[in-house]
Specification:
85% helix, mainly alpha, binds protoporphyrin IX containing FE, 137 residues
């Protein structure tokens, strides 16, 4: 397998894995009442965001852009894929906002927002993978 595509896959696994995990981590750290590992270690979510999710996102987008330039692909599926990737980037940024909000105040509404972002992420990651693997148009 070409090394650039391998790099793209490795970065994707790290990025998508961290993105699916982050909303659950933030929601767990915002839960009040019982003892919670994530609630007692709020800096863990920031560490996963800063040291895993963000570098993996930069690597995934950089290697994807290099693949696109090297192979000169201008197919419609790639344009639509870039739109679903933009939705992933938006959710990434929203996870950062939730982490900052969580550090100021623990609120029940935060857990609802985590659920919404988690759902949006599952749909956009699924759509991206379907577009690139099925290449429907
Ligand atoms: C700006 C971001 C991205 C760009 C520019 C990009 C671009 C590309 C390009 C040009 C290819 C080669 C396609 C081919 O050889 O037919 C590719 C492969 C692939 N990309 Fe991305 N990509 C990006 C992000 C993503 C994301 C976020 C995912 C998954 C969630 C993803 C999943 C894949 C997969 C699974 C392949 C392999 C497809 C195959 O070999 O048939 N990419 N990408």
């Amino acid at each position: 397998m070409p090394l650039l595509k391998l790099l793209h896959f490795m970065a994707l696994i790290g990025w998508c894995g961290a993105l699916l995990y982050l909303p659950a981590m933030i929601a767990a750290s915002a839960r009040s009442g019982d003892d919670g590992f994530y609630r007692d270690h709020p800096q863990l979510t920031r560490t996963v965001f800063n040291l895993l999710a963000t570098p993996a996102a930069l690597l995934a987008i950089g290697s994807g852009t290099a693949l696109f330039l090297r192979e000169s692909i201008f197919a419609p599926w790639l344009i639509v894929k870039l739109t679903t990737v933009a939705a992933m980037v938006l959710c990434h940024a929203l996870c950062g906002v939730l982490i900052l909000r969580r550090e100021r105040i623990a609120e029940a509404a935060l857990r609802r927002d985590c659920l919404l972002i988690g759902l949006l992420l599952s749909v956009s990651i699924g759509a991206t993978l379907w577009l690139v693997l099925a290449k429907p148009f």
